[in-house]
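Q: Sequence in, structure out?
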Amino acid sequence: MMAATQPALTIRGEVRFYEAGDKGCLVEASVEGLPTGPNAHPFLAFHIHENGSCADAGMAAGGHYNPEGRQHGYHAGDLPSLLNADGIAESVVYTDRFVPGDVIGRTAIIHELPDDYRTQPNGSGGPRIACGVIEMV
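A: Exactly. Output:
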């Protein structure tokens, strides 16, 4: 479950992680209440972050999940940006960079801007607007 980190937003959603093959994960995100209007960007950076806390407006989540110390764009926690369509985003993506057990206790973060997949260390995604701790259900 995700909750907004900025009081003016009412972002709610779920991110689910499914085992896929021997060394992969299917990540399914369903989010609503994303920014709308003329200043809202249609693409929003979406990452798995290292720590399991959303305190301090999501800053306690730390940096991107990156157990292999790779450059941004290749971090285990780098996921495709979400498409924000009138405040709603649905996404299903496969990754071979982690399995569900690797991310339990970490956080899923949505940023205000798109990921450029180049800028180090975080892709210039801007402020963190939603954060959720990944838990086993």
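The chain has one helix and eight strands.
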